[in-house]
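Quarterly update from the structural biology core.
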Amino acid sequence: MIHKLNETHDVRLRSWIESANAPGHDFPIQNLPYGVFRRRGSIEDFRIGVAIGAQILDLRKAYAAGAFDDADVLTLSAIEACRGASLNALMELGTEAWQALRLALSRLLRDSSPAQVTLRQSLLPQDEAEFTVPMQIGDYTDFYTSIHHATAVGKLFRPDAPLLPNYKWVPIGYHGRVSSIGTSGMAVHRPMGQIKSPERDAPVLAPSARLDFELEIGIVIGSGNALGEPVAIDAAESKIFGLCLLNDWSARDIQSWEYQPLGPFLSKNFATTISPWIVTLDALTPYRTPMTRPEGDPAPLAYLDAPEVRTCGGLDIDLEVLIETARMREEGASPERISRSNFRHSYWSVAQLVTHHTASGCNLRAGDLFGSGTQSGPQPSEAGSLLELSLGGRKPLVLSNGEHRTFVDDGDAIVLRAWAEKAGFARVGFGEARATLMAAAGSAVPAATQAETEGKR
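Predicted structure, tokenized:
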């Protein structure tokens, strides 16, 4: 693996931006994730920034202020690639340029940096910013890497054979829709689609009554590969720029009718929410973990196997889902956590996803996005979807204020959060991916009616 510990991971580093030094903050100087932002409510161009504490360092302004005048050629090429409105140009440069810029930013933002006077004019508080999708996404592939999710869902529909025979051999994925990917804060309209209930002879076009979230990690591709040239497993991580949070919204009733034989379609194409910050793979180096399989499971085929994948191909990232209902907002209550899991439970590593995706000769490009698939853990409380938490709608989830949920209601906001922490290292967070469900566009069916019909579908 190309990612190794270096001075940017030192837990003793502190920043001249005091909020970055606060215990438990998502964005200490050891993190430095990238996003694309502008001042909220303005008509300014979107630009690339780095999260540091509660602030954003505007890289275009920092460059113009001369903060990189003494940079080496590699760092200079990287910062010049950050003058646009998306991260694609930086992503295309590859790992050496990414690492050089990370080191330069770390040194500029440390409490001993002489650049702090110059750079203060390049800061914007995060709560004064609005964000957009940080890269131009050419293609989006959603995988199915949690064996716990695959087994739990399989039990709902195939109790005698919950896990299909190919699961332990091949990373399962399908190609999703790019145009409906948005960033945290987006509104999601309840989708319409064909729904066929068991007691009906024919399907009807109706708003989904079984609208669900899926807790996922997004994997952002950096430099790509040429068409016809697969990426070997020992080079796969060099193609990954970083990770984000991803909510793959799913209409379960539409999905159950349409998904055979070619997989999901309208049940998945209406919305995907990602977090605005991309945490680089370099920042996550301290939180690597072995990729282990239960005794008796087949070893991956040779093209998906490598010693480094087995010893440190996993990532120990805590994940959680919170819900904020309309009633909670009205009463001023905080969102309530309904699930907590960890990315280390994934059956396939991020490197294996890249290698398998390109095994056919498929060419990846800078900005391509992978979804990890729903990240459920081995315990029921670690389920990454309401489909699992409510046992397919049969056992409503009871919230602390007395509300019940089998699936997401209109007005509910779903919030995903993630962080990595380990003794001897700083906590690195992802921010959040938040989206609010709205009524179906143009639909006269009220949310209450949809909720009442859940058990009938």
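DSSP finds twelve helices and 26 strands in the chain.
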